[in-house]
Amino acid sequence: MSRTIVITGSSDGIGAAGARQLHMDGNRVVIVGRSPEKTAAVAAELGADHFIADFTRLDDVRKLAEDLDSACPHIDVLVNNAGGVFGDRDKTVDGFEKTLQINHLAPFLLTNLLMEKLLACKASVIQTSSSGARLFGQLDIDDLDHDARYTPHKAYGTAKLENILFTKELHTRFHSHGLSAAAFHPGAVATSFASGSTSFMRAVYTSRAGRLFMASPEKGARQMVWLAEGTPGRDWQSGVYYEGGKPARRNNPQADDADLARRLWDRTAELVVKRAA
C-alpha cells in the first residue's frame, strides 16, 4: 500500500538512502533538507516534492509545517531524521544550544504542529536516535542547553536520549488516539556524520580504518524503511526504541523513566511556545 512519507534530513546519508528505497517500493516520499542544492538533487532523482528548512531556525520549522500541511492531503509517516553532532558550544538565533535545537526541539515542534493531521491519518512518527544515548546521554531538565558542562558528544548523546523519551511520551499521550511512534539506532554508518564536529567521533567517522567497519547508508536505512512500511502492533510496537530490528536490550536508565519523559515534554513545549510568543 502506497504511503505518504515525510523524511527530514533526507538530502544525504541514511535519509537519502531511505528515501530512495521507500520510493522504489511505490511510496510517495517528501524530501526535507537544509541544503537547497543537495535536497533538490535527491528530489529530482526521485521525482519527489521537496522543502528546504534549516533547523537552527525554528521559524523555518514553522514554515515547513505550514508547507507540508498544504502540500500533503495526508501524512502516513513522519521520519524525524535530521540531526548531528557539532563542535564548540554554539547558540542558535532562537537562543538554544545548537545540538539540542536541531536534534530535539525542531522535530518536537514539527511533530506537534502537524499533530492534527498525523492523528487524523493514524500516522507513525519515527525518530532516528543512536546508541550514543546510552553511551553519552545525561539529561538534566534544568540544564537542557548544557550551560554547566558541555562536550560535543555529551550534547549529542543527550539529544539522542531525548529522541527516545520523546518517542515514549508520544506513545503515552497519543497512541490511544491512533498515533504510533518508534525510535531506532541505524548503527555506525559511513556518511558525512561528525565531519564538522570537534568531537572524537570526527576522527572515527573520517578515518579510513574506522569506515572499514561501518555500514553503508543503504544498510543503515534498513530499519527506517522497515518501520516506515511496517504496521504498528504487528510488525513493531509503538513506544519502543529499536537496535538491529529488535527492541534494544541495553539502554540508558533514564530512557525508561516515564516521569522524566513527561517532564521533558512539558519543558520542551514551554520553550518552543515561549520563543514563538
From TrEMBL:
Keywords in alphabetical order: Oxidoreductase
Q: Has the keyword Oxidoreductase been applied to this entry?
A: yes
Gene3D superfamilies the UniProt entry points to = NAD(P)-binding Rossmann-like Domain
Which InterPro entries has this protein been placed in? Answer: NAD(P)-bd_dom_sf, SDR_fam
Does the record carry Oxidoreductase as a key word?
yes
Question: Which molecular function terms from Gene Ontology are attached?
Answer: oxidoreductase activity
One Pfam short name: adh_short
Note the SUPFAM superfamilies from the entry. Answer: NAD(P)-binding Rossmann-fold domains (SSF51735)
PANTHER family of this UniProt entry? PHOSPHATIDYLINOSITOL-GLYCAN BIOSYNTHESIS CLASS F PROTEIN, PHOSPHATIDYLINOSITOL-GLYCAN BIOSYNTHESIS CLASS F PROTEIN-RELATED
Entry protein name? Short-chain dehydrogenase
Native species = Planotetraspora thailandica
